[in-house]
UniProtKB/TrEMBL annotation:
GO terms for cellular component: peroxisomal membrane. It comes from Pelusios castaneus. SUPFAM superfamilies: NAD(P)-binding Rossmann-fold domains. The chain crosses the membrane at residues 468-486. The keyword Metal-binding does not apply. This is Fatty acyl-CoA reductase. Residues 357-448 form the Fatty acyl-CoA reductase C-terminal domain. One of its GO terms (molecular function) is alcohol-forming long-chain fatty acyl-CoA reductase activity.
Length: 515
């Protein structure tokens, strides 16, 4: 029997961020591998006109729970939603719910955060730092608490090249910064944000770094571990290969490439793309929860959860496999044939943006206007370019993370635990993973049926014909305007044609001689 699965049976768990991408996979794995878990409390806020109850009722119907639904049809009875808002005093939890949590909870998994790169600093601090502080303060009062697992990010310290499994002190005192946010005008905060975050690329990574330090400072007697995943991608195996449900990380760009919208992207082809499958992160998280509770390490352990140092794969290779998968399994109604120019050169990227993004978008919008419809492509591209700007920091450089604690934990697991809670990424076969990722994005994120592939291929053939027709027309226009009208252009043209002819004749002659 797995020690990890056995540990969680009979335990009461609290998860924050359970409605998010990682939270759902965590909840699913926990309920499936430890069906006798006592209860899983989840902190949920009402959102988008839906009450907490409606959100949870919809969530448990989601595809991600299909496997656990098959194994334990009443799994949802274990899920106990608690109304909470992490940015509010006392997390807005009612006195009754609070009492229940304080007296019952054995393990806390803190996943909730804002992951937006453009989040205003005040809100990112309020949620990622002060929300964590409030949760820690609750945790300290929990009578039966055995472990507290904080989910951070491998990029919390992305201002360093080599990142060890230690907490790095931030440049400012968190408390002073939070005090500042309380009285300072929003517009002034916005203005001084770049100065405050210094060499961090965004408010997300900056506040995650502050949160790590705060956890270390305020842990007191608690058994805490920190998990630092890199770029979390679709699942490798569980609950299904390729399962994904949001556009974060690389997923949005992968889909944009599949739809033929993204044709150029600023990346360093040789830089390591540190993608990590979501099920690997969740398996490590559950294993760390068990280890922290049972072995109670003397110091707080940080687990870097990355692939680059162990099984590296570069952005150039990802781009190649994404495009080739989408050529074999096209997305429906692609805008253009999938292809990707990947360069770290600013000018070359700008050239391709103008030629393969802006020009087709303008032409398409013109066509929409002429046919009495609403233009939309330029808007989509402007949004894509904004996202690309925010992401390029991560795609143009590499980092090195040490993974001693993660490896030591793996070595402590029984063979059965290592099989059921596998986080050994040496076994990850990248081309197969990327193929499942793209197909998973098509099925689970875009809700496209695989039976529509022949029609999607037919659509790509139509696009190719349009492109050939367009290129030929363009060539004729260029000929008419420049070459046919100017003697000099004609001379250059004949010179180039005769040069090509000579080269061809030379190669033909030399290949005949060789045979
Ligand atoms: C040839 C293939 C090449 C593939 C690889 C190329 C590039 C890889 C790209 C990136 C990898 C780097 C990632 C680094 C991760 C660092 C590690 C972490 O810790 S992860 C936490 C990760 N957080 C994120 O990834 C959040 C990033 N996103 C944002 O901050 C914002 O979404 C935004 C980019 C600022 C855009 O904000 P905006 O207000 O304009 O849009 P919305 O967020 O409201 O979304 C609108 C709409 O678009 C969908 N969406 C969101 N992001 C993307 C995206 N990147 N691409 C396409 N579409 C996206 C979103 O779901 C919304 O849809 P809907 O309206 O239907 O809800
Ligand atoms: N995705 C990635 O690539 C990576 C993620 N991480 C970390 O993993 C964790 C989970 O990320 P992920 O699942 O991808 O993120 P998601 O954005 O998918 O989920 C975030 C979760 O936090 C909840 N939340 C946000 N604001 C509040 C609030 N004010 N009160 C209560 N709950 C709130 C959301 O609830 P709601 O549904 O109501 O919005 C949601 O459940 C985060 O800590 C993130 O920093 C680390 C590295 C990479």
């Amino acid at each position: 029997m797995s020690s990890i699965a056995a540990y969680y049976n009979g335990k009461t768990i609290l998860i924050t961020g359970a409605t998010g991408f990682m939270g759902k996979v965590l909840m699913e794995k926990l309920l499936r591998s430890s069906p006798d878990v006592e209860a899983v409390y989840i902190l949920v806020r009402p959102k988008a006109g839906q009450s907490m109850q409606e959100r949870v009722a919809n969530m448990v119907k989601s595809k991600v729970f299909d496997r656990v639904r098959e194994d334990c049809p009443n799994f949802q009875e274990k899920i106990k939603p608690i109304n909470a808002e992490l940015t509010q005093p006392n997390l807005s939890i009612s006195a009754k719910d609070l009492q229940e949590l304080l007296s019952q909870v054995n393990v806390v998994f803190h996943c909730a955060a804002t992951v937006r790169f453009d989040e205003p600093l005040k809100h990112a601090l309020l949620l990622n730092v002060m929300g964590t502080q409030q949760l820690l303060s609750l945790a300290r009062q929990m009578q039966k608490l055995e472990a507290f697992i904080h989910i951070s990010t491998a990029y919390a310290n992305c201002n360093r090249r080599n990142i060890d499994e230690v907490i790095y002190p931030p440049p400012v005192e968190t408390k002073k910064l939070c005090d500042l946010m309380e009285w300072m005008d929003e517009s002034v905060i916005q203005e001084i944000t770049p100065k405050l975050i210094g060499d961090w690329p965004n408010t997300y990574t900056y506040t995650k770094a502050l949160a790590e330090y705060l956890v270390q400072q305020e842990k007191e007697h608690l058994n805490i571990a920190i998990i630092r995943p890199s770029i979390v991608g679709a699942s490798w195996h569980e609950p299904f290969p390729g399962w994904i449900d949001n556009f974060n990380g690389a997923s949005g760009m992968i889909i944009a490439a599949g739809k033929g919208i993204l044709q150029t992207v600023k990346v360093n082809n040789e830089a390591v793309a540190d993608l990590i499958p979501v099920d690997v992160v969740i398996n490590l998280t559950l294993a760390a929860g068990w280890y922290t509770a049972v072995h109670r390490p003397k110091t707080m352990l940080v687990y870097n959860c990355t692939t680059g140092g162990i099984n590296p794969f570069c952005w150039g290779e990802i781009g190649y496999h994404v495009i080739s998968t989408f050529k074999r399994n096209p997305l429906e109604q692609a805008f253009r044939i999938p292809r990707a120019q990947m360069t770290s050169n600013y000018l070359i990227n700008q050239y391709w943006i103008a030629v393969s993004h802006k020009a087709p978008a303008m032409l398409y919008d013109l066509y929409m206007r002429l046919t009495g419809r609403k233009p939309r492509m330029m808007k989509i591209f402007n949004r894509l370019h904004k996202s690309m700007l925010l992401l390029e920091y991560f795609t143009c450089q590499s980092w090195e993370w040490s993974s001693e604690n993660t490896n030591t934990l793996m070595a402590q697991l029984s063979p059965e635990d290592r099989r059921l809670f596998n986080f050994d990424v040496r076994q990850l076969h990248w081309s197969e993973y990327i193929e499942n990722y793209c197909i998973g994005a098509k099925k689970y994120l875009l809700n496209e049926d695989m039976s529509g592939i022949p029609a999607a291929k037919q659509h790509l053939r139509k696009l190719r014909n349009i492109q050939y027709a367009f290129n030929t027309t363009l060539l004729v226009i260029i000929w008419r305007i420049f070459i046919a009208r100017s003697q000099m252009a004609r001379n250059i043209w004949y010179f180039v044609v005769s040069l090509c002819y000579k080269f061809l004749s030379y190669f033909r002659a030399s290949s005949t001689l060789r045979h």
